[in-house]
Amino acid sequence: MAFDSFLVRRGLRLEAVVIGGAALNLLGIASRPIRDCDILHPELPAAILEAARAFAAEMRGRRAVLPAEPLQAESLTSAMVGIGMCFAAPAHVEANIEDTLLFASVEGMERDDLRVLAVLVTWLGVHAAWVNADRLTRLIQHHHSPRVRAFWSAFARSQDKDRRFARLAAVHEGERADLLRVGTEFQIRRHGEDERFAGTALCVPANVLRDRAADVLSSEELAQRHLTYRYRIMMGPSYRADMWAALEGDPSLTVAQLARRTYGSFATAWHVKRDFEILTASRTPSPRPAS
Predict the structure, then answer these.
(1) What's the pTM value of the predicted model, to 2 decimals?
(2) Closest by Cα among 111, 182, 185 to 151
């Protein structure tokens, strides 16, 4: 049970006599959701009661972080085009921005696709102000690759004036990583270091990642194409902006669906759905009384 693991993390242990629906679930006789757990014996100590309250709060606040499926091959290329990277492929114009950024970095750092990585770095140079830093940080904190984490830590260090990325800078610890698996030091001696990564967690030779403005759409162009990006410009790069854009695209979304689609909290989704419905109703002219 999840609560068992929670108690172990806190160094606590509970042996108790459980009755009712919870007992049937524990015995494997039933598997229905239950709202509480009836304990006959013993009287629960204060530490267990406090742990139960903390566990309940954690469960209420828990939300999805990682996408259900990774973006790879054609789906990744379409998503990158959808968020404004100029590759020759159809655009997925509803692509999630942070999901796409994560998997583009995996393509570049783990699969050594330096063309993708170069365009990603250029895109970040243009559009970093409208990245949801909290969502991106959560994604990278859950990723296992030291090279991917080093890349994002390096990016965050380069954004030292934007405090939203402070937590992201801490995802990599230890020595600097080399972008090239072979020959990074030699290339840096010959060509110098890419100034965009100087002093960060990633060593990048200056001649490896090209930086061409034509490789990405401008903010004006992307705002015309990508609804979520446009709402982030209007409302700031937040879960609320993403939810509002999602409802503009599909007003029938339930609160739970809205939270899952945008990786936001249920509470935020509830407030956005309420506000959206209020404003939608206000756009409908009230019938005039008969004269």
Answers:
(1) 0.77
(2) 111
